[in-house]
Amino acid sequence: MSILKKPLITEKMTKAGEKLGHYGFVVDYKANKIEIKLAIEKMYNVTVERINTMRVPGKLKTRYTKTGVTTGSTGSYKKAVVTLKKGETIDFYSNI
Hints:
Largest sheet: 4 strands, antiparallel
Shape: elongated
Number of strands: 6
Distance between the termini: 25 Å
CATH architecture: 2-Layer Sandwich
CATH topology: Alpha-Beta Plaits
Number of helices: 2
CATH superfamily: RRM (RNA recognition motif) domain
Helix content: 10-25%
Structural class: alpha+beta
Strand order of the largest sheet: 1-2-6-3
Number of domains: 1
CATH class: Alpha Beta
C-alpha cells in the first residue's frame, strides 16, 4: 500500500510552500497522520512538524454532447497539508 499518491503542485500550494513551509500531498484514503508523517520523512529526508488532513469530496460534472447531456463526478480523495521544520524545503522538481 502506497501512502503518498502524488504531491499537489498548484499555485496556491506553491505560494504556501515558499512563505510558510506548507506542502500538499494526495494520500491514501485510509492513511492516518502518523503513517503520513513517517512516509514523508523517509522519502524526502525532512522533519515534519505538523500535518493537517482533509477529505475532499468529488464534484458533479455535466457535459453537453451530440448525444445529449452526460453527467458524472470526479473522484474523492484525501489531502494532507504538511508543515516542515523552519528552514527545510522539499524540491519536487529535482527528479525531472
